[in-house]
Amino acid sequence: xxxxxxxxxxxxxxxxxxxxxxxxxxxxxxxxxxxxxxxxxxxxxxxxxxxxxxxxxxxxxxxxxxxxxxxxxxxxxxxxxxxxxxxxxxxxxxxxxxxxxxxx
Length: 104
Prior knowledge:
- The protein contains 2 helices and 4 strands.
- By secondary structure, the protein is α+β, with helices and mostly antiparallel strands.
- It has a single domain, classed as Translation Initiation Factor IF3 (2-Layer Sandwich), CATH 3.30.110.70.
- A 4-stranded mixed sheet has the order 1-3-4-2.
- The longest helix is centred in the middle third of the chain and has 25 residues, at 48-72.
- The model has no long low-confidence stretch (mean pLDDT 88).
């Protein structure tokens, strides 16, 4: 599956549009990572636990979006975007969406 955040895939021609596809995941903070993040707020630096959590969430959302596109017969997703929202205290949704297409 070709994933692009642009409206086209360089060197390819879009021959069929299938419509919007999406994938999401809801993740909760880990209490141990939360404690470490609190300490980092005092001394500064990257919150590696949260960086890893967001990276995993993006990967899962992209996988779910790709499965949906594959089910439609697409071989690429263009104009991919991400959004986040708070679902509950300590939990957030990461949402990926784009347009499923066939490219040649």
